Amino acid sequence: MDGIALLSKVFEALADSGKGRYLFITDLKTGLSKWSKDCVDEFGLPDEHVLNAGQVWGEHVHPIDKARYDQSMHDIFEGRTDSHDLVYRAKNKKGEYVTVSCKGKVIRDENDEQMFFVGTMINHGIASEYDSVTNLFTKEKLIDTLADYKDDKERYNILFLGIYNFIDINNVYGYEFGNKVLKTFAEKLLEYVDEAEVFSAGGTKFAVVSTSLKLKELEKIYGELVEYGKYSIEVDGIHVAIMLGASCTEVINFAVDEHTVFSNGLRGLEESMYERHGELYAFSNSTMDKSHERLVILNALRHSIIEDCSGFSLVFQPVIDADGEGFKGAEALVRWKKDPFGSVSPADFIAWLEDDPLFYDLGLWIARNAMKLWKENVLSVRPELNLSINISYTQLERSNFRKDIMAIIREIDFPTDRLKLELTERCTILDKHFLRNEIIYLKSQGIDTIIDDFGTGFSALELLLLLPVAAIKIDKSFVNGIEEDFCKQAVAEAMITCAKKIGLHITAEGIETATTRDALKKFGVTSYQGYFYSKPVSIEEYKQLV
After folding, report:
1. Could you tell me the CATH superfamily of domain 139-299?
2. Counting CB atoms within 10 angstroms of each CB, which of 159, 283, 329, 424 has the fewest?
3. Check: CATH 3.30.450.20 for 3-126?
4. What number of other Cβ atoms are within 10 A of residue 77's Cβ?
5. pLDDT tens digits for 183-209?
């Protein structure tokens, strides 16, 4: 019996698979495979019998998932492992990426030689349903679920969790190991919460949603997970410790939309991880008024963005040349004021909105209006002055950011050599090579980039070696009180000297007194920004100043 006939007989005995569930079998001696007809039809494969199926199927795998897939296949065909268990995205014949979970096993003969690789694949549907790393429902599915609860007016509690030492795990063990840590933690979450739904909330964040578990019960679960994270995670024989943060909210206001709940929960999670050292940020009965107030304001902010950014306005804070103290330009800053809330600090609302899908729209509004106002009011009289606009990581990571920012530049006919984009500190959480490529692209269009809040976050000096930026802005935490603080002077001098030697411009923000200015000037700062020169002002006031 030839290989094709043998494969067909074995296959027919096993091929009774339901819709969306496929079978495949590969002869490891010849490389010939047979696939379920449903799979061939769904993904547009050349035939039910395929040679070099690993390579053929690999062409359908999403580029982001391809390295994991290739490694798994390599390990199978090199005999390093007999099992395959992977969740990834694959492109169907319509060009849509769907999530598939694939499990396979190598069958060996009596001489322990590889004979067949047999497996099943489940098509979970459009890729937004399942996260490819954790196999949990995705952030998009979470948003849909919260919307359903809102429509049904059903109360629920939501626990957001995040791992805040994950960058250290990736740096030590690599990204593939880090993905296994995420998957292991996700499986533990599923064990703990029978009476809840568990979701990936993006990256290293998770969400647990329950209509039956009380806040106290979720708090108890979080405490147990913290202990588990400290001592019990084992991946590939290696014990690792993860550090968790969490926020917990009771949702009883059905006038508040699902995106507001999501953004509010993530902001509480950020506070837990980076301001409270992992202490649970819980909106219990005693703090419900605060939670409710923030949810209501967030809801109003989101509706303002939807309504063509009504209530938002722009102000401009001058940037001053250190030599001669003339104007070099200004930084555009956003403000929000609306009845009955009054003015809300941008330090609050930007942090609340940053993980919200609508923040991207607000960012485009800021860019378009800042360029328009600057061109009409400033460049017409002082064409040498620069405009700086802040860009967040949630904008940069969007695949259409390049196209959108360049479309605005063309629409306004704004000179790119007068535009500076300030990358906020959280941009450093993006993949460094991706970030480098984005900066190189912007530079090719004549746009300089600046690292804002320099000196905060991880490996600040290392960024200067990797990222081809034009300037840095020294964070005001190093500036405040520097004239009396020898340690701050030493750190600031080191950063400024390093930046100068590689040809970067250096702005010091937060200059409020002449003594602070003088303390920094001797280190070689090239420009200043702060209340000593001017508070943020309207475009009309700025025009009068210059």
Report:
1. Reverse transcriptase/Diguanylate cyclase domain (3.30.70.270)
2. 424
3. yes
4. 15
5. 999 988 888 777 889 999 988 999 999
